């Protein structure tokens, strides 16, 4: 089963390892380095083994059936009033 979520970033780029941590796909930098070097991470459907790869808004990153789309800005919050 795969899941797909949006991950919001403030800047116009984020490094792949940082994105994995921000999205909650890995717990720490060591795990990010491991899964990336093992070829388990794809960016827009292509395996990417560069931990420092620059990921931009609109790109889709996947790890073990979980996908995240990078979005620039802040998430919209529904206010109940």
Automatic annotation (TrEMBL):
Keywords: RNA-binding
Entry keyword annotation includes Disulfide bond: no
Gene Ontology MF: a single term: RNA binding
PROSITE patterns cross-referenced by the UniProt entry: S4
Gene3D superfamilies according to UniProt: RNA-binding S4 domain (3.10.290.10)
Domain of life: Bacteria
InterPro entries reported for this sequence: S4_RNA-bd_sf (IPR036986)
Signal sequence, renumbered to the chain: none
Protein name: RNA-binding protein
Organism: Janibacter melonis
